[in-house]
Amino acid sequence: MRLIQPDDQTDCYLHLVVPNLIIHEIDHHSPLHPEAKQMLDPGGPSCSEKGRPLTRNSIEEHLDRHNIEIVVLVEGFEPITAACTQGRHSYLHSAEDVVFNCSFAPCVFRKDDGSLIVDFKRFQELVPAPPRPRSTYE
């Protein structure tokens, strides 16, 4: 699954000491695309060939109809102790875990002395996302 942020084409790494925002855009390369199975067939038609544009509604209907679960696995390496750490979380559209056009509120702030502080009250707070010019759905 391709990532927009961090950009997986540039081998970016996550810094696990601060909260991270990971973005996957649902486009014709995405396994979450409503017609992903047909598009995997080399002779199969693409969404654009069928004349159906990819919309937010078509993505939501697809997630609901097929009861799709998104499982995220994050593995990190802590360089000082050489310890490996892992995290796993499951997201279901039917359980309202998947939210469109939102982003997490900023929760990491720099203090006057230059150190960072995390506001855990805002850790899971959602705010409207700014429009993304690369977006493929309405």
UniProtKB/TrEMBL annotation:
Kindly state which keywords UniProt assigns to this record, in alphabetical order: Ion channel, Ion transport, Membrane, Potassium, Potassium transport, Transmembrane, Transmembrane helix, Transport, Voltage-gated channel
Membrane topology, as annotated, equals:
Multi-pass membrane protein
InterPro entries attached to this UniProt entry: Ig_E-set, IRK_C, K_chnl_inward-rec_Kir, K_chnl_inward-rec_Kir_cyto
Do you know which Gene3D superfamilies this protein is assigned to? G protein-activated inward rectifier potassium channel 1 (2.60.40.1400)
Subcellular location as annotated: Membrane
The residues covered by the Inward rectifier potassium channel C-terminal domain are: 53-128
Does the keyword section mention Membrane?
Answer: yes
Keyword Signal: yes or no? no
Main localization of the protein described in the UniProt heading: membrane
Q: Which SUPFAM superfamilies match?
A: E set domains (SSF81296)
| Pfam families xrefs | IRK_C (PF17655)
**What protein family does this chain belong to?**
Belongs to the inward rectifier-type potassium channel (TC 1.A.2.1) family.
Name assigned to this protein: Inward rectifier potassium channel C-terminal domain-containing protein
Q: List the lineage, top down.
A: Eukaryota, Sar, Alveolata, Dinophyceae, Suessiales
